[in-house]
Amino acid sequence: MHDMRQRNTDEERRRMVPDFFLKEDNVGVVVDDSPRTIGGGEEVIAEEDDAENSTRAVMSTSRRGGGGTGTAIKKSSSNDGFDNIDQHPSRERYRKPSIGGMTSLTESTRADDSNSASAILGGGNVWTRFMTRRQTLWDKLDASGGMDDDENEINDIDDIDDDGSSEGGTDSSWVGCKRAVRICGLSIWYEAMHFVRTIKAHPRILLISLATFALLCGLGIAVVVSGNRAHVQRQKNSAQLKARETAQWFADEFQRAMLPLYSIQQGVIYSGYFEDLPTNIGPYPNLVIPDDDPTTGDIRRNVTGICDNRDIVNKWRDIVVPVNAENNLDGIVVGYRLFPNNVACLTEPNGRESTPHFDAFDMPQGDSPIASDVIFGYDHGQSDNPMSRMITTDLFIYKKLNVFGPVSMAPMTELICGHLAIWKKPGFKDSSAKRRRGQRSLQYELNVDEALEAAMNDTVVGASCPSPNSLNIHGTCVEGAWGFVGNFLDWKKLKDRSDIYERFSKSNFDFRLSRVSGATMPGIDSAVLAESPLASLLDDTNSILVFTDTLHGTWQNRVGDISGWESPWYNAACVCVVLGSLLLGLLTASMLVERQNHRNLLYKIMPQKAIAKLSRGQTVAESFNIVTIFFCDIVGYTSMVGGMSPRQVMKMLNELYMELDILVTKHEVYKVETIGDAYMVVGGAPERVLAPLAAQRVSLFAIDAINFVKTFRTKDGDQLFIRAGLASGPAVAGVVGKAMPRYCFFGDTVNFASRMESTSKKMRIQCAEITCRLLQDSPDVNFHLTKRVEGDIVGVDVKGKGRQITYWIEGASHIAKKDATLPTFLPNFELEKHHDIESPKVSDSSGESLQEMFSSPDAYAAISAQDWKKLGHAESALVCATNDRKTMNFRARALLEHYLDRVIKKRDPDANITLSTRIQLFKFVDAVSQTYGHAKFHSYEHAIHVMTSMNTLLSFALTEDPLNSFSMVFSALIHDAGHTGMSNQNLRDTIHPLSKKFAKDVPIAERNSIDLGLSLLFRTEYQSLRDAIFSDEMDKIQFGKTLFQAILITDIATPENLQLSIRRHEACREALDPLTNDLNPCINYLSDIVDGLGLAQDVIERRPADFALTQDGLQHCVRNEHLMLLSDVAHLLQGWANFVKWNFRLYKELYDCFRGGMCLDPRLGWYDGQINFLDNYILPLAQRSKIYLREDFADALLNNGLTNRRIWMERGRLASDIISKAVADDEKEIDVLHKLYELPALE
């Protein structure tokens, strides 16, 4: 019956699902419709535990592949061992026989596909939505039966049958094309949205891309603009050059064309052939011909028989033709004309007679006869014609050459006329017409230039001229004027000869050549001499102006490009640059997005440090002293997934694990992996934190996970139940193998945590005993823990470990803000082979730190065991000298923690330093380290050296008090805090801000260090640390007095302070009584102690004895002062290596002050200064300190000082030279120290 019901159900569902979901390539999984219980009760769990445990090994294989992806094999409910599935013809070849009564996995998944189709049609819960589409990827997987990712997005396109035709009869190629286009479009849309989301999440990508675009665009535009400017300048230069060349060529041609006029002028004057012409023509109005048209203003003279005399004409030709030929003006100068008495008379060519040099038809025939037997000529000196008046006025009134045109005179259309005046000599005697022909009628006693100058000064205005040598020019008598000669230039031919049009067109220039000054006749001649067809488009924006002075006046040549000076490629280049920059910016953004996505993906797979090592080809393996591991799994998972398809299992687990992943981020723990239904989390690795903090984080995660699962429901409304277990202990993590690397954890703690989970109960959290202890040490969270007791049985049996006491984590309260994780320390190192004092080389590849490798007691023991003479030598990682701040912080904390522990145990032998106190102590040390600057000598490294030296001195001191010892080590840590590298005197001289903070007689640097240290200590975040140091008011007083005594005495540069210290020492030895107040080092700082330690203002009045100086107090004070002074200069009383190392650093600091103009050059007397310092301060200090230290150690101190003095006496000068040269040349310290260490020693 069940078989029939199943078949009917399948048939019904098959009719509801489109054929697409039943195709042979869409593999599905059978869905069992029978009701099921998910974690329904303890009975079910009990029954399933054995089956679950027996199959866990098999399931784990599939779980590593993604969690239940096909390993669940459902037993058939039919009698014959096969599921009854409709035998679709196209599916026959995929049918496989069952094995052992179980359905073939391929057949089972394919049959279940039909049952999953209804889920697709109805939508579903969401894992990852594709943009805004409502269907989930899991729904599409169910529908498509394992389609490719791209095909999953296009499930509304019909599949193509094997024969190439579509099911609906549509052409298969069109369907394929449509599918490809949609796949492409969806892919582009998805990539674009993913691109935008990544940029929103990482704004720096956008900033870098915009910066890249701006930089490239700016550079590109700058290059294009620069190239365009160069092009514009070249174009302008070219235009200017061509304009000047052209104008100059015309100017030269005009010069050459006008030269014949001067030759002809001289020929007329000196030949004597034409001396009678003015007389024969006579003055106005002789031989005047009445004008038929008086409006023209022209006056004509009848020159028949005068100007047509054949002999005169031939003489004229004999002068003109050779002159013209000599200047190569044939074709350019078309004719010449002579004007005696300013009357047109002789012309060459004459009439219509052409000659080898002139074409008569080119000559303007302005004078035409009235009758065939009458010759007339225009009288330009008397005519009112504007042209005549202009010519004669220029020649005789303004005394200059007259050139005008171009004008149109038939048969010429473009003609330029030139005219030159002919002058008589002063004293010229007019002869009668009867004088013999050939006799020279023009008698000159002076040269022509003198005659010209004289004539120019004899101009008389009047209607008639009284002198026979004067000529009436429009009513003005001009003395010495004879007439003028003129020529005619064919401007068109001159332009053709110049190739002006071709010259500019070849360069793609347009031009307009015009005249801006000179003789002109408005309406008769044209100002424009020549222009290109598009010259009207030229203006100031696209052309330049070039001016040239010629005989024709001043010419202006406007030359340019109507399209502008910019290069034709300028706009296109700008667009290309912008588009190219934009493209490169997008490519940069795309590259950064891909790189960021790649990095994000890698960081989700394994820790950043592991990835860095793998990328360098290194092995990833690191050990952790203590971590806390969390395991959980789903109760009844095996029976549950037996009735689900692999996709449904994956979908369910994904919904659950995504929420747990959110909790992982919230609690700052590390998700290791998911193995099927198992979920593994680690605290304290790979980012190292304190063990209680790691346990706290994992436990809070577990609590939140349980609370979430209580409200979690699957898509079908079913509830899940989980169980969880925690264990703490050491573990090793790393990557094993090369293919498919995974960051895994190994060790017994991993197995123990798994056992805690497997033996836990539904919806409960079981933890190991060590985890319970760590949770009890949690500084800011109160965990509710209950010991597991079932009847009379305490704990639980754990395979391989026996019975273990375990606890239930019931909850947590008073959750405060989590403390920040402590920073890591110096990684492992390699010791330098050259000298044992040198600092280690830091290796970034190590994941270990000193804190992780060693405890604070280990560090204290190593520091205390080191020989005084070799403090800082590289004997181990715990003691070697280094400038790594984290390593120095670790050592400082180890020393302070040791002495603070002694303070606490003196009060209560059973008490220990709490975790919160340790954390605050570490933070305080780190805060103090930040107050040290970049001084070469008074540095944080020197403070650590003083601390280690103080620690050794305290171990050899004759008397010792825990609080006093802690105070001395504390003082050594802060004694140079905030030091500027300048002495107190320098601070005062430079009016440093610190000098204004304290009184004049107060040691500035020392008081500033005290203020910095106390202000840090009394911050609110160090309350636990202060509670551990001070149990009552007396502790604060003792601590404050010791602090001020120890730090103020380090001002050894003040002689008074040093002498007072010696006086106190002597008073202590002599047991003076009574003691004077001036011996009390704190007498002037009592109010500062009260304020700095937060004491009540009346404490001095209430407890005067505690602040008064007693004999015991004086001995205590002097002891502290000497211990502090010895620690501060300990390098001088240790081995040569420490001596010379800190000597070099002190020199560098003083040299910086010298360069700042604050002190003398340290090179002056450095050698002698060290000897004086040893003799007058160091050795006496060591001698005085014998009464406070063990005898053998005190003798060793003194011997070390004497030995260093002997070495310095012999090798100090050489060492001084090495130091001074190294500082001046800015050599590396390590190289300088090598040289100093290699100096022969006397030891």
TrEMBL record:
Residues 48-117, 142-172 are annotated as: Disordered. It comes from Cyclostephanos tholiformis. Residues 101-117 have a biased composition (Polar residues). GO terms for cellular component: membrane. The chain crosses the membrane at residues 205-225. InterPro entries: A/G_cyclase, Cyclic_nucleotide_synthase, Nucleotide_cyclase, PDEase_catalytic_dom, PDEase_catalytic_dom_sf. GO terms for molecular function: lyase activity; nucleotide binding. This is Guanylate cyclase domain-containing protein. It comes from the Eukaryota. Residues 628-757 form the Guanylate cyclase domain. Keywords: Lyase, Membrane, Nucleotide-binding, Transmembrane, Transmembrane helix.
